[in-house]
Amino acid sequence: MNNQYAAPAANLDQQPSEGSRITSTMLEALRKTKGWVMLVGILLFVGAVFAVLGALMMIFAGGMIGASNVVPRGMMGGMSALYLVIAVIYGALGFYLVKYSGAISRLLADGTSKSMESALQHQQKFWRLAGVIALVFLVMFVLGMAAAVLIPMLMSAR
Predict the structure, then answer these.
(1) Which of 50, 49, 33 has its CA nearest to residue 97?
(2) What phi and psi, each to the nearest 5 degrees, are found at residue 6?
């Protein structure tokens, strides 16, 4: 039997916490950001296209220069592979930014927390990929610097 004089019980786990609603200031900041996000995403796609064109030119130039023995045999192929890796990286980063911009547009249209979550998830994927790429390049830089110092030292020791 329930005590009618007892304090009411509420399930607070399902209730939004104080300050968890989407404010007009948040929406305005995202509205001002959306165009820049789309611009950078499109520029990354353009960069990816130029990287693919650069890779194709390296392959073509490798065939032309290969006969003259000016450049080591596999160098142009290796450079074209590097350009293709850069194109994939630029394309992936651009994809996440364009998706983020689209999610911001949906958020501005309906203002729901589901749209906000979608926008933040796309942003999180972009930054996670950008962070992994930055770490990989940092490790490659450190290894390259170590090789630049150690290889000549080892060669002179012979």
Answers:
(1) 33
(2) -75, 155
Angle at 15 between CA 13 and CA 6, to 5 degrees: 75
Q: State which H helix or E strand residue 68 sits in.
A: none
CA–CA distance, 109 with 53 (Å, rounded to integer): 38
Q: Which residues contact 80 (CB under 8 A, 6 or more apart)?
A: 54, 55, 56, 58, 59, 62
d(CA 54, CA 129): 23
* Greatest CA separation for the chain: 97
**Tokens of residue 10, six digits:** 């509420």
Angle formed at CA 111 by CA 105 and CA 113, multiple of 5 degrees:
105
Tell which residue, 40, 29, 5, has the closest CA to residue 107: 29
Reported as a single tens digit per residue, the pLDDT across 16-39 is 455 568 888 989 999 999 999 999
Angle at 75 between CA 91 and CA 46, to 5 degrees: 20
Q: Count of residues for the chain?
A: 158
Structure tokens at 22: 């989407």
* Better-predicted residue by pLDDT, 72 or 135: 135
* Cα 121 from Cα 99, distance rounded (Å): 10
| pTM of structure | 0.75
